[in-house]
Amino acid sequence: MADYIKFVDVTKCDGCRACMVACKNWNDLPAEFEDFQGSYQSHEKITANTWNVLTFNEQENSDGDFDWLFRHSSCLHCVQAACEKACPEDAISHTEFGSVVIDADKCVGCGYCVQNCTFDVVKLATYQDKNGKEYKKAQKCTLCTDRLEQGLQPACVTACHTECLIYGDKAEILAEAEKRLANIKERYPNANIYNPQGIDGTMTVYLLADKPAVYGLPEDPKIPLSQVVWKDYAQPIGKAMLGATTMAVIGAVISNSFLKKKDPEQGGHDHD
């Protein structure tokens, strides 16, 4: 696992949406206009061209007042990633930084990753080839892997002015998370650090002010056994068997061709 992680302290978020703008700008993602939903939230959810969304939840606190519970919602980059397990083309993988990325050249747009994503962040984008024929490719947040390769921080982290978003050494950040958790426990009794161990943790770790369900997050997600069996056992065995079968067929063709060349008079004729 990578030594660096992204940390999201929702209690420090002020809802400015700078992270959303920075993500759009850096990744050259097109604007998406949505109908007004009657809330402050600009987008209903993550899409193929909006890789992070700031969610707004209004909640009554213990004093009878209302608090805004914001969440920077984007790919969590699971250590055990269901999207990677579900992909039949090996188009999804982990980088040296722990980020989960999609190889557009390998992606066939089947949508299995979309159906199986633990956090509903992988989406299919529609494109057109030079003949006008439509095709689809899976897309999502990359944790700005291209920036990490250049020694830069993710664009959303750079844009955050409240230290809600931090990217850095894993051990140091987790220690800081524990300190921040202790400081807010009186105000937010249900506060917790969200780093689900059922999927061996995530590269984006949250400090939540309330239970995960309040933020639309699963309490204790796990990779379905069927996906583990498929990706780690069935698929490799199937490919090996297919390879063996292919080699056997090729071998038979070569052998048959050799025999025909050796005795050209033999064919479908009987000899007395």
Automatic annotation (TrEMBL):
Cofactor note: Binds 4 [4Fe-4S] clusters per subunit.
Major localization listed first in the record, in broad terms: other
Entry cofactors: [4Fe-4S] cluster
Residues that, per the record, bind [4Fe-4S] cluster 4: 87, 107, 110, 113
Residue positions binding [4Fe-4S] cluster 2: 23, 141, 144, 156
Residues that coordinate or bind [4Fe-4S] cluster 1: 13, 16, 19, 160
Claim: Repeat is one of the keywords in the record: yes
Cellular component GO terms held in the UniProt record: cell envelope
Location(s) in or outside the cell: Cell envelope
Keywords: 4Fe-4S, Iron, Iron-sulfur, Metal-binding, Repeat
Pfam families in the cross-refs: Fer4_11
Positions annotated to bind [4Fe-4S] cluster 3: 75, 78, 83, 117
GO biological-process terms attached to the record: cellular respiration; formate oxidation
GO MF terms held by the record: 4 iron, 4 sulfur cluster binding; metal ion binding
Residue ranges occupied by any 4Fe-4S ferredoxin-type domain in the UniProt entry: 4-34, 66-97, 98-127
Family annotation (PANTHER family): FORMATE DEHYDROGENASE, NITRATE-INDUCIBLE, IRON-SULFUR SUBUNIT (PTHR43545)
Protein name: 4Fe-4S ferredoxin
Species this protein is from: Bacillus canaveralius
